[in-house]
Specification:
The protein is α+β, with helices and mostly antiparallel strands and 155 residues long. It has a single domain, classed as START domain (Alpha-D-Glucose-1,6-Bisphosphate, Chain A, domain 4). It is 23% helix and 46% strand. InterPro entries: ASHA1/2-like_C (IPR013538), START-like_dom_sf (IPR023393).
Length: 155
Amino acid sequence: MNNQVLKVERKINAERKSLFQAWLDVKDFSRWFLSGELIGIESVTLDPRPGGKFLINMSLDGKILPHTGEYITIDEPNKLVFTWCSHATDNRNTLVTVTFTDLSDVIIENSKEKSQKPKTLVTLVHEMLTNDIQIKNHNYGWTSILEGLDQWFSK
């Protein structure tokens, strides 16, 4: 079986602890975790602990598309590792690792004073995908999801 790996990154103006928590708080998660313009979130259930399961019911054209997984590693605020299974993985478990890296503080010129704003690099690696279609679809989905996270923090 072919094991393809997808990597998506996004620099976000927020502290990594806040970004990390956004992945584990069900209310927050439901507000930003959107994988495309036409896809909505019907419901989300998270049990954020190693061995805990999650269920994300996405909706598209009146259909419910369940996405399931199990948390493997929760290393706050550095790394999340979880399995990921959906119609887009041919209902096979795949592996997702999300890391949160503090970037050097960016100095912003404000009139006479300088202030520092936290910035975090969010890196998502999705492993065990089996073909180019899965890579393409997940690249679009994860890129949209990280854009949603960025937009949610820039409000």
